[in-house]
Amino acid sequence: MEQPALSVLINNYNYARFVGRAIDSVLSQDARNVEIIVVDDGSTDQSRSVLEAYDSRVKVIFQENAGQAAAINTAVGSSMGEILCFLDADDWWASSKLSATAAAFRANPQASLVYHRLQPTLVDGTPTSKPIPRSLCSGALSPLLTRSAGWWPFPMTSAIAVRRSAWNAAGSIPEQFRISADAWLVGIYPFLGDVIAMPDPLGFYRIHNNNWYRATEDATTLRRRMTHWQQTLEATNLFLSAHKLPARLHLRDHYPYRIASAKLQGADARTRFKLAVEGLFFAGEPNLLRRMRDSLRWAHGLSRLGLDVGLSEATK
């Protein structure tokens, strides 16, 4: 069977020092019939000169800064491939990523989304920690997402590929997802078809200060994350309603949100025990041993004096 056409869509904003490696990793793929589209979202560094050096090997679009969702939407609108593969400009891929992704879509005609693990690296590209996500989920995931308020061990943007027919059904990414377009992809596409997980780490995820997640959490980071989760849930429910899909998500089922709230507000012994028990049954983590470990660790780490209270005390 002829290999499907693949569109690689790279969003870049002020990553002149990284984007070349991302593009080079696509140019060195062992797959055929690949187009590369880079949308520069109003960079103010040296990105333009880096991108223009690739000439006709890469289609480059420059636009005013509008956020990650807008950049990806622009890239998709200019693409022609049946399979859409997303790559952040600060990440890069193994040489077999595209051929493995195309094979997975061919073998699973009902799949709307295919993903793989990513190997976290330091800024200089040195591998660190184990590939993510640790748990993998395949098949019809919509029942799981309905029980977990949309949470699952989801992949990052650079690990995600979707079928164009699913993109057409979902529509463009809402531009409220300025820095977290993957939240839309992993939250919506499981309701449009099967999800296929490939176990190998076929890409590299660079950890640095501009990433969404941080090594340490403070009150401001937690509140921002909780707001993001709530807005994502609301956007998902609007999508489900508009497409006449019966599922609805409820924030009370979002265990990470409840843990974050307890970190901010503080938790007494009874609350910690209750959250530990709830975590044992949280649908968003399919691996039982990992679910047990995480729920006990998170509940044990909660303090009676929450971060919000601690902040107010420190400012007196």
From TrEMBL:
Span of domain Glycosyltransferase 2-like = 7-119
Write out the GO MF terms: transferase activity
Question: Pfam families attached here?
Answer: Glycos_transf_2
InterPro entries in alphabetical order: Glyco_trans_2-like (IPR001173), Glycosyltransf_2 (IPR050834), Nucleotide-diphossugar_trans (IPR029044)
Q: Does this entry carry the keyword Amino-acid biosynthesis?
A: no
Instruction: Keyword check for Kinase, yes or no.
Output: no
UniProt KW keywords: Transferase
Which branch of life, at top level?
Answer: Bacteria
PANTHER family noted in UniProt = GLYCOSYLTRANSFERASE, GLYCOSYLTRANSFERASE TAGX-RELATED
Protein name as catalogued = Glycosyl transferase
Highest lineage ranks of the organism? Bacteria, Pseudomonadati, Pseudomonadota, Alphaproteobacteria, Hyphomicrobiales
